[in-house]
Structures are given as C-alpha cells and as structure tokens.
Amino acid sequence: MATFPPTKDSKSAGASARRSGGNPRTPLGGAAASAMSMKWAAVHDAAAAVGELAGEPPEFRKPDVRNFPAIMRDTGGWRFIVAQEGVDDLAAIMEPGLTALLALHGRGAPTLAPAQALWHEFQSARAALLALIPPLGIERKS
After folding, report:
1. Which of 16, 18, 32, 42 would suit a FRET pair with 98, their CA atoms being 20 to 30 Å apart?
2. Residue 119: exposed, middle, or buried by beta-carbon count in 10 A (0-12, 13-18, 19+)?
3. CA–CA dist 17, 99 (Å, integer)
4. At 1, is the secondary structure helix, strand, or coil?
5. 11 touches 77 (CB < 8 A)
6. Is the model's pLDDT at 78 over the cut of 60?
7. Are 27 and 14 in contact (CB under 8 A)?
8. What would the pLDDT profile of 5-59 be if each residue is shown by its tens digit?
C-alpha cells in the first residue's frame, strides 16, 4: 500500500471539498467514507458468519471498531487512504473465504479448521487497521 505526498490536484480537491461542505482531508467528501462504512459493516457481517463456523462466541464490537470509518474520515490524510485500501483488502480476503466455507458447509464437510484460520486472519488484519487510529494524546496507564 503506497502513499504519496500531496499534489497540486489533491490540494485543489481539498479546497473543492471545503466549498461543497465535505471534509477537506478526504477529496471525495463523504462519499468515500460512506463507501468504506458500508464495506466495513459488510466485512463484519461476513466475519460474524465465519466466527460462528469457527465456533467463536458472538463478538461485542467496541466503539473503536464500530466507529472506525468515521474516525478515519475525520482523521483524513494518509491514514484515511491506507484505511480505505485496508478495508478493501480485508473484503477481498473475506468474500472468497466465506464463499468457500459456505460451500464446504453445504456439502457437509468439516469447516472448523478453515473457519478458524480465516477468523484469525480477519482478527489480525482488523487489528492492523485499528492501529491506524491516531492516539488521543492522553497518557494511558498500563
């Protein structure tokens, strides 16, 4: 996932977003963030199905997980771009993985081991994405 320095075009896109009421840090205003929100929700729906096949209990989604797309939208810049790419990558992993698991399940084949592998892959990828959330500037006690 490459990031690039701002260009003259991206600066004018930010000005355009400000004039249109969008976030100047996200050139497409809210459209890109909205698309990421929908994809983030879909990925978590898929993950819930994978978790069930993996024998995991239903997951309680903490606020940072629920609000990740909005946090990234508000953060903007390179973190927003990397978050968008990461969510796209996570969706690209989950869609064929869940399709394969459902096919196995439909045939009566065991799904526990592959579902657990996909579940752990999802958890790792999501943790990497959540690490993009900038620190709040509050010193945390261990």
Report:
1. 32
2. buried
3. 38
4. coil
5. no
6. yes
7. yes
8. 444 444 434 433 433 334 444 444 567 668 899 999 999 999 999 999 999 999 9
**What whole-number distance in Å separates Cα of residue 128 and Cα of residue 38?**
19
Residue closest to 50 by CA, chosen among 1, 2, 109, 121: 121
pLDDT of 112 > 80? The answer is: yes
- Per-residue pLDDT, averaged over 79-94, amounts to 96
Tokens 């989950």 belong to: 94
If residue 58 lies in a helix (H) or strand (E), which one and from where to where?
none
Of 120, 133, 140, residue with least CA distance to 66 = 133
Q: How far apart are CA 49 and CA 95, in angstroms?
A: 11
Tokens at 64, concatenated: 């940072």
